Amino acid sequence: MIFARMQLIYTHRFESAYGDEETLTQAKREWAYSLAGVEQSRIEYALEKCKLELAWPPTIAEFVRYLTPDPQALGLPSIRDAYLEACQNSHAPLQHHWQHPAVQWAARETGYFKLRSEPERYSWPAFEGVYRNLVERLADGEEVDFEAEEVALPAPDFSAEEHLVEQLKAAGASEGDAYQLAYYLEKPAGSELRARYRHHSKERLEALELKVELPE
Questions:
Q1: DSSP letter string, 166-188
Q2: Which of 18, 60, 103, 154 is buried deepest, with most CB atoms within 10 A?
Q3: Alpha-carbon distance 100 to 165, whole Å?
């Protein structure tokens, strides 16, 4: 079927690539091996992409790259847009009106904690992998339950931050400086992000010549 469609799409350009029967037979065998197990819907999608984007018949490698639809082709946000929305709303996912339930699903599967606490070099590959896998499953016609039960997150506890703010103000810091210096306590305990913010607060504390011990 693929070769028949290719011949219709590319006419003489396709025929010139396989000048004799032996070459054509070998090519069909290679394509069959490479596409074994691929859903028919994915092959149809790739053929349409090739028709619109490639002036010459694709190689096997080029065709394989077209097998996975872009998220937008399935009515989903792009991977990057989905990632940014997931990160920005990972602190309160149940309060956000998601542009598509698939984004919330991918954020949950990646881990809200990872998205809100880890640097992009770790959270982006994790989310990208989950989202791409979801796109492939949907492209294969799988029905994914996006409405799995969510567990409400507990209200954040700012008591440690407030306590540090009072210590800093008592040591001579202005209210604005005190809140900036204590801000790192809002980040998840034990995370690299919290450690980095605490380091900046410590440097700022030394510059202000304030003698206050910053908790971990």
A1: HHHHHTT--HHHHHHHHGGGGSP
A2: 103
A3: 39
Q: What is the pLDDT of residue 118?
A: 83
Q: Are the C-beta atoms of 181 and 171 separated by less than 8 Å?
A: no
Least confident residue range of 102-106, 184-188, 209-213: 184-188
Average pLDDT, the chain: 85
pLDDT of residue 146: 80
Nearest residue to 139 (alpha-carbon basis) of 58, 50, 71: 71
Where are the chain's structural domains? Answer: 2-67, 74-139, 159-207
The contacts of residue 37 (CB under 8 Å, 6+ apart) are none
- The number of residues in the chain equals 216
Q: What share of the chain is helix, strand, coil (3-state, %, to 5)?
A: 65, 0, 35
Residue range 182-203: average pLDDT? 81
